[in-house]
Amino acid sequence: MQTLKKIHETIPYGTATTEQEILTINYYFLQMNNNFARFKWEDWQDPFKDKKDQLAQFIKTNHLKGKTTEDYTKLVEYYNTL
Fold this sequence. Notes:
single chain
């Protein structure tokens, strides 16, 4: 996992002050065949095409949403047991 933090600045209409917001973006990586690739939850089927149906059932059964590191870890650990 790699964490990236960005500052987002906005100036609301009619004010002279700047509002700042810190955005935290987490990137997850998979190592497959000695290559690292960025892994997005929305695209989980791409690297796991061979076990797609079993993983889809696992995600549904365990209510994984891809919002935490634990969700990614559970998915990869289950894949490694297949």
